[in-house]
Amino acid sequence: MKTIPFWTDDYPRPDGLVAGDLPKQTEVLVIGGGITGLTAARCLAQTGIEVAVADSQAIGDGASSMNGGMAIYGLKAEAEAVIDRFGEELGRELWEASLVAIDRVEELVDEEAIACDFSRPGSAEFGFTGRDDRLLAAYAGWTTSELGFPIEYVPRERLGEVVGSERFSMALTDQVSAGVHPAKYTFGLAGAAARAGVTLVEHAEVTGVEKWGGRFSAATSRGETEAARVLVTTNGYTGTLFPDIRRGVVPIGSYSIVTEPLPTALAEELLPGNRMAWTARRFLNYFRRTPDDRILIGGRRNLRTDLDPSDSARELRSRLLEFFPQLAPFEISHVWGGKLGVTFDLLPHIGRHHDVWYALGYGGHGVALGTYLGTDVAMLMTGRLDRSPFADIPHPTRWYYRTKPWFLPFAALAYRTLDRFGR
Which residues are within 8 A (CB) of 126 and not within 5 positions of it... i.e. 6 or more apart? Predict the structure, then answer.
């Protein structure tokens, strides 16, 4: 079993993707070379702006290339709660943005001819108990009647149409959600940014940023550069360099395993139609078929970012066999983990602190929302967009969170307890 991400092992960095040296000066410095940063950089460069992307690692080494590759509808926060909080107009706009975000991924893939196994098979959310059935059925009815977004309630007697498992009691399905090969998508974005004129700078950890006379001076592990504007897109990898931004996003660990390739007939039996899937729990599991008919399952048993890979593999394999005992004869080929970024209101945010722009906080929805916010923040910076719903909402922090998220073990205990009792 390899302890490296399956996606980048399956599709290593293309030979033609070449990084450059840190320029002495640039118009915009983007810190973070994942989906958000690369999308924003491409969008900025297409207007003729000089852009450099600096990443502390290699392009594609963060969560953007190792996630589940799922571009699904909705936000981490429930739509009804968002509307209750922000009102009908803004709340619905935030919801609609989650759907437009999937369209933006598809449009970008088409425009740049990114061969990333993009498809829109829809998705399925699975419940376990009678309480899940009641709550999810009510949610499906509400989204259909109030949001005009059809979600189908699939009862137990029809579950074979959606999943080859006896573990679940029902499912909700949609026809909008999409899947990608995340490494191919991320490297494709990097190539598109480079073609637009963006300078990609790897292994350039930004260690200091100061503003003098209307320009920023940034110190990195590969030298210094000056920029008129700075954009931070580091999400779950945001460090303490920008404390005001860091206080608004909490890094959470997420872990995945993938099986060896399965016979196509078995893969189709387990997940007919190749839907993206997840469970209705706080500590949810997400799972899908890969393009070569493996089964990938991910999730977390607590919120730490430093779990032992072998422990994660055992835990996830146990959960995989709970759902799909048919997979007992098949080996696990890869286990890996990464960091996602979660905000206190479970919503993504665009903002500015001391004239430094940022976009982050996807809560596990970063494939689509990172693409959406990357585009929006670039257009806001250039004046091509007057507003974005993700810049119009307040970005909450907590007085007790400064540098380290010491409270995560307590939150994890509460989530496990609620999940155990189906609450």
Answer: 163, 168, 170, 171, 277, 278, 279, 280
Q: Three-state DSSP class for 181? A: coil
In single-letter form, the type of residue at position 193 comes to A
How far is residue 30 from each of residues 22, 68, 82, 280, measured CA to CA in Å? 12, 25, 30, 36
Q: Are 346 and 363 in contact (CB under 8 A)?
A: yes
Q: What is the separation, in whole angstroms, between the first and last Cα of the chain?
A: 35
What are the residues whose beta carbons fall under 8 Å from the beta carbon of 226, sequence distance 6 or more?
Answer: 24, 25, 26, 215, 216, 217, 218
pLDDT at 380 over 70: yes
Domain ranges of the chain: 6-120+178-253+336-413
Residues 249-280 pLDDT 10s: 999 999 999 999 999 999 999 999 999 999 99
SS3 content of the chain, % helix, strand, coil (to 5): 35, 25, 40
Burial 20-40 (b: 16+ CB within 10 A, else e): eebbeebebbbbbbbbbbbbb
Helix and strand totals (H; E) in the chain: 11, 18
Q: What gap in Å lies between CA 379 and CA 247, rounded to an integer?
A: 25
251: left (phi over 0), alpha (psi -120 to 50) or beta: beta
Residue 274 CB coordination number (10 Å) = 17
Whether 284 contacts 299, CB under 8 Å: yes
pTM of the model: 0.96
Q: What's the pLDDT tens digit per position in 199-243?
A: 999 999 999 999 988 899 999 999 999 999 999 999 999 998 999
6-120+178-253+336-413: CATH topology: FAD/NAD(P)-binding domain (3.50.50)
pLDDT of 421 strictly over 70: no
